[in-house]
Design a protein that fits this description.
By secondary structure, the chain is an alpha/beta fold. It contains five helices and seven strands. It is 40% helix and 22% strand. Strands 3-2-4-5-1-6-7 form a seven-stranded mixed β-sheet, with helices on both faces. Helix 3 crosses helix 4 and helix 4 packs parallel to helix 5. The longest helix has 20 residues. The protein is globular, with a radius of gyration of 15 Å.
Amino acid sequence: MIHIVTGGSGSGKSAFAEEQIVKFSGDRRIYIATMYPFDVESRRRVERHRRMRAGKRFETVECYTHLENLEIPAGADVLLECMSNLTANEMYREDGAGDQTCGAVCRGISALAERAGNLVVVTNEVFSDGIVYDPETERYLEYLGKINQYLAQIADCVTEVVYGIPVCIKGMRR
């Protein structure tokens, strides 16, 4: 099962995604953390997410780039958080994929989905503000949009979390 969870900042998507993984009865839960803690605020977010996962039997694996090279146990229940960070890392980090970001990320997701028993991917809804951005930010939004479209196509379920309320876009009705 592949489940994509999207929503705006502070929407409750992370908590919802964790609930979905916890519902599976697998022996191993892998949390793939993609946020590189580069400043005080990002380190606070990392700590907040660690507290949210406490006691839920997650093994945390940090993966900032090259998801396709990540080895996970076959059949594990995997939560990847989050696609917007992974996309930015691939685009802008020296060790990232640069202009090949979309292909690299999609190949990584495909490889992960083949090994995982269940895969939940968190992404961000960042396309509704109507603001015109600088060309580099527009390129980031284009890449993330293409990746999100790919995710939605291969997913069994797509859920948008709005104000803590999960809204089914594709798949199981809740």
